[in-house]
Amino acid sequence: MKPLLRIFVAEHCSGCKEALDIARSIKQEYPHTFTVEVVDVTRSLADIPESVFATPTYMLNNKIVSLGNPRLEDIARWVPGGIATPAKSTKKMQ
Fold first, then answer.
1. pTM (whole model) above 0.90
2. Which residues of 32-62 are buried (b: 16+ CB within 10 A; e: fewer)?
């Protein structure tokens, strides 16, 4: 089972448009590495973890890995047990 990467965003968040772009890029670049779920905290009926106090927040398997938008090299380090390899040539996400 792939690790679950949840990205918490909000309507009023200035960095969340970029977070949505990053989410799309992660889905394209790492399709076999992560399951990506975007959660809009202003619209979600799901329980938002208490540890999510700002947006965007990136949470991998219920552990915060980034407050704010990560750099490309940070994303590759999130894979348990090693570095993830993009599915195709990597383009800059930010």
1. no
2. ebbebebbbbeeeeeeeeeebeebbbbbbee
Tens of pLDDT along 55-94?
999 999 999 999 999 998 899 888 766 545 555 544 444 4
- Residue (of 5, 1, 2) closest to 63 by Cα position: 5
Q: Is residue 62 part of a domain?
A: yes
- The domain spanning residue 41 has which CATH number? 3.40.30.10
Report yes or no: 36 and 23 within 8 Å, Cβ to Cβ.
yes
In-domain check, residue 9: yes
Q: What is the pLDDT of residue 82?
A: 54
